Amino acid sequence: MNNAKHFRDGLIDGIPIGLGYFAVAFSLGIFAKRVGLTAMQGFWASLLNLASAGEYALFSAMQDKVTYIELAIAILIVNARYFLMSFALSQRFSADTTLIHRLCVGYGITDEIFGISIARKGNVQPFYNYGAIAVAAPLWAIATAVGILAGTYLPVRIVSALSVALYGMFIAIIIPPCKRNRAVAICVTASFLLSAASTMLPLLKTLSSGTRTIILTVIISAVAAILFPISEEH
After folding, report:
1. Per DSSP, which regions of the chain are E strands?
2. Global pTM value
3. 57: Cβ–Cβ under 8 A, 6 or more apart, which residues?
4. What SS3 state is found at 64?
5. How far is CA 123 from CA 48, 91, 114, 120, 187, in A?
6. Angle at 14 between CA 13 and CA 18, to 5 degrees
7. Helix or strand holding residue 46 (H, E)
């Protein structure tokens, strides 16, 4: 099977992913407009980041005017799961896959693209990933820019209503795994409660929201790893 066939397969499989991304990134664009980004800035932020939770952390940190160090650490922690996906996917490359192909595929690893890549039989073919990235990444970036433009020209009431969609997106993301896994449900509940408490506790409330997010993420993840270890069989 030649590279063109792999690319075409990835392109086809990436279309539904890209369409799904468009709706999510549009909501992110509405939020980015509130932060003060232009359509072009939002486009490049999405194209270079390519992560919903990571971009929400980015825009939230910008809104709170955190330091560059806090911003970098927050995004690193939020996007840390992509390290694990990269490690898993790297085991599926053929031994002769060059470093440049590995790096380019690494750029476009999202939850969905990882899922369709790891599900294919045999070795991971870089050109399959390129095909999926070629449709998903531009739609993600364009939708962010469109969301910002919508936030600029639509009436305030409509923009406020559309802003709610972003929170609906996160609820849609966390509810299914919470229903399947008790440990995830406990961690999510603890995150909500501790996040609210951190805005009222004497020492924590003086910190920026970015620093609080970093501290809570590390603590909750560490405690969860101790209390709910994953069996080696999985």
Report:
1. none
2. 0.70
3. 74, 75, 78, 210, 213
4. coil
5. 27, 9, 13, 8, 35
6. 140
7. helix 39-49
CB-CB contact of 49 with 169 (8 Å): no
List the chain pLDDT tens, one digit each, 234 residues: 588 899 999 999 989 888 888 888 888 888 888 888 999 999 999 999 888 878 888 888 888 888 888 888 888 887 887 887 888 788 888 888 899 999 999 999 988 888 888 888 888 889 999 999 999 999 999 999 999 998 887 776 666 666 566 566 567 667 777 888 888 889 889 888 988 888 888 877 777 666 777 788 788 878 888 888 766 554
Q: Do residues 14 and 113 lie in contact, with contact meaning Cβ atoms separated by under 8 Å?
A: yes
Question: Which amino acid makes up residue 100?
Answer: I
